[in-house]
Amino acid sequence: MPTISEIARDWGTSRPYVSRCVNHLGCPTASLSQAREWRENCASKRPTTNAKQIARLLGEDSNDSETYARSEACSKHKTDNPSFPSVDSLHDALEAAIAAQEQAYSLVLEAIGEATDSKMAVLLAVHNKALELRLRAEAQYRDALKNGQRG
């Protein structure tokens, strides 16, 4: 049975962090492999929002040709259709929220067959946040339309 210090060394984290995981969050200490599995499935309550960490979790490399092609397509799209501020900035925010949610959803669909649990957790968290923001933007837009028609 490994000690908290041994688990901390195995995880590459601090002893107090592992102690909190073991004593308060239910991390098993029967073996290092069980502790690793628990950490992968249960330890992270808040998914990362750092783009580099998300790319690393997804297994994307900065030299990856598919990633490069995707970034080239995005930059080409931006130069082909320059976006100017419109009169209705709330509508622009709504369109951006819809686009973000749809992109997050497509990433989840792409990763369903090939992703590990930790990758899926990150992608689902990103999608859920994008969906939450989209719904909030739609509600604000509807409220603005309703208030604008009355006024």
Could you walk me through the main structural features you see in this protein, from its secondary elements to its overall organization?
It is a single chain. With 151 residues, the chain is mainly alpha-helical. It has two domains: 4-43, no CATH class; 51-150, no CATH class. The chain is built from seven helices and no strands. The protein has helices at 4-11, 15-24, 32-43, 51-58, 65-80, 89-111, 117-150. Helix 1 (4-11) packs across helix 2 (15-24) and helix 6 packs antiparallel against helix 7 (117-150). The chain is elongated and about 65 Å long. 11% of the residues are buried.
Would you summarize the structure shown here?
This protein is mostly helical.
Can you give keywords for this protein?
single chain
What is the element layout, followed by pairings?
Layout: H1 4-11, H2 15-24, H3 32-43, H4 51-58, H5 65-80, H6 89-111, H7 117-150
Helix pairs in contact: 1-2, 6-7
